[in-house]
């Protein structure tokens, strides 16, 4: 019987699905000890800090994670940061395989003048802010303005647009961070404008998420009918229409034809606009755009410029992975071939393939990486693993400590009809775990 030590770094969906694939691959003569290492004092990654609070059903996948965690060959080491508490080299020396499942936590930069003005955020800051991530609890978000602009036409842009425009009362029964709910309830926002740089036929959001906008109470969803008409004309001349594009355009047509209420907020989706400057004294006041044209299915800038006045801007233009010593980042993800980085180092999830796909995409992706690891395994190493590497006295959040945090959050939520109230203070999370 061979027993291999596996370290997985990052306790998000791809980390858990990697652990699950190892558990499923166990046979009479083959077993694995799995250590899941996480920087935060809480696991679940984007299920906790990325998935929008009005998508509670999606978060039920955490039940699968907890089942994986109950297996006897699994250990959680949260509040342990790679590169700070642990060196990657040491981890690689002590484990038969190390899998980076560290995601893509950094927002891609828009690289226009004024990007760093106050009240200009990346979705990589804004989303974890409303989701109670301890690193972003103090983000200085000001919603005392009339208009917010969201740059990008993907599902994250729609998540942010929904949260900013929906009736905040309907978020009462969710696990949204209390600090964000309070701000949303006193928000002065009347207009939320999503700006895509290409045409409606190139939108990255899915029709499911676009259709969901129509369910928002008291929100006028607006798309200019001409934009869709021109997109359809362009597509007619270019031949075959992809199913998702056809579906998106059909919903956009419904949106453009729907009547508007006098009261309520406006959520507008505009296309063919590329920001070239964020302007303001200290805080964002307006965005200058160049208007684009589509030619041969590609967008190119025209001579025309336009300005949108706004008091808040969020760039939702995709994410990038972070680097660790000895790791190369290429096109925003860890340089790898089919998940193999080098020797006993592997990568999975968004860190492997870039920020593409939904939570479930990580399951098959991680299973493929685990197959490759198993093929490459040699003789099991004799080593102590993580316990020999961490400084003595380091406060680990293990599975038992996490279950204490989890229970405390769920209990405090029950009183107010929420699935949980997230603790957003790092020290307090450690205290809850070690109570
Ligand atoms: P995304 O789907 O890649 O969309 C990014 C958007 O940003 C695109 O419209 C892109 O335009 C635009 N963009 C990129 N660089 C830009 C620039 N310099 N200036 C202006 N616009 C720019 O990324 P995402 O929205 O972050 O989502 C990441 C993944 O998570 C996706 O697979 C998404 O489906 C998934 N997700 C799913 C859900 C859900 O299912 N409910 C929720 C959230 C996220 P171009 O197309 O022109 O490059």
Characterise this structure:
This protein has 435 residues and is α/β, with parallel strands linked by helices. It folds into 2 domains: 2-105 and 320-433, Rossmann fold (3-Layer(aba) Sandwich); 109-315, FAD/NAD(P)-binding domain (3-Layer(bba) Sandwich). It contains 14 helices and 19 strands. The chain has helices at 13-24, 46-49, 62-70, 88-94, 123-130, 155-165, 178-185, 207-213, 225-238, 243-257, 350-353, 361-376, 399-415, 426-433; strands at 2-9, 30-38, 74-78, 97-100, 106-107, 120-122, 147-151, 191-195, 219-222, 265-270, 273-279, 286-295, 298-309, 312-315, 319-320, 329-330, 333-334, 340-342, 345-347. The strands form 5 sheets. A 6-stranded mixed β-sheet has the order 3-2-1-4-19-18, with helices on both faces. A 6-stranded parallel β-sheet has the order 6-14-7-8-10-9. A 3-stranded antiparallel β-sheet has the order 11-12-13, with no helix packed on it. Strand 1, helix 1 (13-24) and strand 2 (30-38) form a beta-alpha-beta unit. Helix 1 (13-24) packs across helix 12 (361-376). It is globular and about 65 Å long. The site of NADP nicotinamide-adenine-dinucleotide phosphate has 24 residues, from helix 6. Residues 110, 151-157, 159, 196-198, 202, 204, 209, 274, 316-319, 355-358 line the site of NADP nicotinamide-adenine-dinucleotide phosphate.
Give a quick precis of the structure:
With 435 residues, the protein is α/β, with parallel strands linked by helices. The chain is built from 14 helices and 19 strands.
């Amino acid at each position: 019987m061979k027993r291999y030590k596996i370290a997985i770094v990052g306790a998000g969906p791809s980390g858990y699905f990697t652990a699950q694939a190892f558990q499923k691959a166990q046979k009479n003569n083959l077993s694995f000890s799995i250590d899941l290492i996480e920087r935060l004092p809480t696991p679940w990654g984007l299920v906790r800090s990325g998935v929008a609070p009005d998508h509670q059903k999606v978060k039920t996948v955490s039940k699968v994670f907890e089942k994986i965690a109950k297996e006897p060959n699994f250990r959680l080491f949260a509040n342990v940061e790679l590169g700070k508490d642990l060196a990657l080299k040491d981890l690689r020396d002590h484990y038969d395989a190390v899998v980076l499942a560290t995601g893509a936590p950094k927002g891609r930069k828009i690289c226009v003048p004024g990007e760093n003005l106050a009240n200009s955020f990346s979705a990589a800051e804004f989303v974890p802010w409303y989701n109670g991530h301890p690193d972003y609890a103090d983000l200085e978000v000001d919603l005392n303005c009339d208009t917010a602009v969201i740059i990008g036409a993907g599902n994250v842009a729609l998540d942010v647009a929904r949260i900013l425009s929906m009736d905040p009362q309907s978020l009462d029964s969710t696990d949204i961070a209390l600090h964000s709910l309070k701000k949303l309830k006193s928000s002065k926002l009347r207009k939320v404008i999503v700006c895509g740089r290409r045409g409606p036929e190139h939108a990255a959001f899915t029709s499911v998420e676009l259709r969901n906008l129509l369910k928002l109470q008291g929100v006028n969803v607006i798309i200019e009918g001409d934009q869709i008409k021109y997109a359809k004309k362009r597509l007619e001349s270019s031949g075959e229409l992809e199913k998702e594009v056809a579906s998106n355009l059909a919903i956009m047509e419904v949106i453009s034809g729907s009547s508007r209420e006098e009261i309520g907020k406006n959520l507008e989706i505009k296309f063919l606009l590329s920001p070239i400057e964020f302007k303001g004294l200290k805080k964002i006041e307006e965005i200058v755009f160049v208007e684009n044209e589509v030619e041969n299915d590609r967008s190119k800038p025209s001579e025309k410029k336009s300005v949108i006045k706004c008091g808040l801007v969020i760039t939702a233009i995709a994410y990038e992975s972070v680097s660790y010593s000895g790791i190369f980042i290429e096109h925003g993800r860890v340089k790898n071939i089919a998940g193999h980085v080098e020797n006993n180092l592997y990568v999975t999830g968004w860190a492997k393939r870039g920020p593409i796909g939904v939570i479930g995409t990580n399951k098959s992706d991680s299973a493929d990486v685990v197959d490759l690891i198993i093929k490459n395994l040699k003789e099991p190493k004799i080593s102590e693993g993580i316990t020999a590497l961490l400084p003595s006295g380091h406060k680990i959040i293990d599975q038992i400590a996490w279950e204490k945090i989890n229970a405390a959050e769920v209990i405090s939520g029950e009183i107010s009809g929420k699935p949980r109230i997230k603790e957003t203070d790092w020290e307090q999370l450690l205290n809850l775990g070690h109570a």
